[in-house]
Amino acid sequence: xxxxxxxxxxxxxxxxxxxxxxxxxxxxxxxxxxxxxxxxxxxxxxxxxxxxxxxxxxxxxxxxxxxxxxxxxxxxxxxxxxxxxxxxxxxxxxxxxxxxxxxxxxxxxxxxxxxxxxxxxxxxxxxxxxxxxxxxxxxxxxxxxxxxxxxxxxxxxxxxxxxxxxxxxxxxxxxxxxxxxxxxxxxxxxxxxxxxxxxxxxxxxxxxxxxxxxxxxxxxxxxxxxxxxxxxxxxxxxxxxxxxxxxxxxxxx
Length: 253
Fold this sequence. Notes:
This protein is 17% helix and 45% strand. By secondary structure, it is α+β, with helices and mostly antiparallel strands.
């Protein structure tokens, strides 16, 4: 599991509204996690847990931190991985800590400032959905501070390998990366107009236009218009009603 994305978490300002939004747009079910002292919602697709939802921590808005999705990457040992990350120029923002009965985690950023989490679960991991199954997260995209150094950082930390590379002209190279031989995402140097590096997560839906209609009817804003990508899939990038950035991917319009 080391180096694989295993969980996703939305921290937002209105959890009830966000729950209703993603249930309608992506098709997830939702239920309370029943964690003592913590208001945490679990999104699922059938019997498969996919993501979590919680209210943003106090003080985050005062620091101008917007609602956002956070990806959790599995590691063999959280403390070792956090120390290694710091040694490679990353920053540990929340030191390794335990979630009773769930696992151990740390909140970190890469050397350019893109946020993600390290995670080691308790016990055997549950069976996962197929990468491109409806309701799963089919793609992980990094708008990096600088592609070559970012790829070297993640490769050293997680063992990711280079897959195809696509020349995007003036935008630069879009480098696909693989985990255990399977392409799971891509990264490129962020455009100059983008203020900071970030990770973006693509939620699988069955048909793009219908999902866009559902999203816009619930208050989403389309940031990057629908486009076809190599391989024939269709994507769109949006912000949800609370301002969190997300994307959708589908095999057809």
